[in-house]
């Protein structure tokens, strides 16, 4: 993860919430008062977000004392202690909600990725994500996918060429689209082509695609069409794939399965913060 970028993101997130100051905390606590937060899992799955805790709280106070009780990517269950953070109460309360929000989302994504990966056991298929991420959070979303044991697809429009149905429609054909980009790219950039029919598959192969995506095809169709694809061309399935049918796609012989659901529709992983002051603990957020 790009830590410089992460810290800039966290500053932006804190400023959105903080504005000109935390009037609730500032009116109750002095800058000298100390306390601690203990983060607990209120769900079961994969923990993700250690860099958020460490860099987030230390941006607010470099002397913040942080003890991690779970490692990145650990399996956790309801009630597990994740981390303890000690420092100025004002700074703890400034960081609490932003950091919890990110931890809950990232742990949910890592958990979803891990569940999907387990559905591929016994096959050669690999799970990857898509660009269906929350704007501004792509780096964190894709990091969480990796922590869950899956892989990243392209990071954005800039690092790989994917010729989807609308590119092909505007260009006039798969062949014309591939030829147009092949003339202008270097040898390190791959071309992926999305296909929906057997004729499109054959055209993509002849046009020289590096990767072929079977879009919204059934496992049976994919299994029947794969023998036509030369070994040097990577294959990917996408569209209409759920946890319920994921194993069937994995058994089709496809190499990659991309799932937008890993990032676009996860339910937040429940994490709570227990605040401690003068030896007393109080559940303050979940």
Question: How would you describe the overall organization of this protein?
Answer:
This protein is of the alpha/beta class and 286 residues long. It has two domains: 3-116 and 267-285, Aldehyde Oxidoreductase, domain 3 (Alpha-Beta Complex), CATH 3.90.1170.20; 122-264, TIM Barrel (Alpha-Beta Barrel). 40% of the residues lie in helices and 21% in strands. It is built from eleven helices and 13 strands. It has helices at 3-18, 23-28, 50-60, 89-118, 138-147, 165-171, 174-182, 198-207, 219-225, 246-250, 261-264; strands at 34-41, 45-46, 65-68, 75-76, 81-88, 126-128, 161-163, 191-195, 211-215, 234-238, 256-258, 271-277, 280-285. The strands form three sheets. A six-stranded parallel beta sheet has the order 6-11-10-9-8-7. A hairpin with a 2-residue loop joins strand 12 and strand 13 (280-285). The chain is elongated and about 70 Å long. The model has no long low-confidence stretch (mean pLDDT 94).
* Radius of gyration, whole Å: 23 Å
Number of domains: 2
Number of helices: 11
Q: How many beta strands in the DSSP annotation?
A: 13
CATH class of the largest domain: Alpha Beta
The shape, in one word, is: elongated
β-strand percent reads 15-25%
Q: Main β-sheet, in a few words?
A: 6 strands, parallel
Strand order of the largest sheet: 6-11-10-9-8-7
Summed over residues and divided by their number, the pLDDT gives a mean of 94
Structural class, from helix and strand content?
alpha/beta
CATH fold title of the largest domain: TIM Barrel
CATH superfamily of the largest domain: Aldolase class I
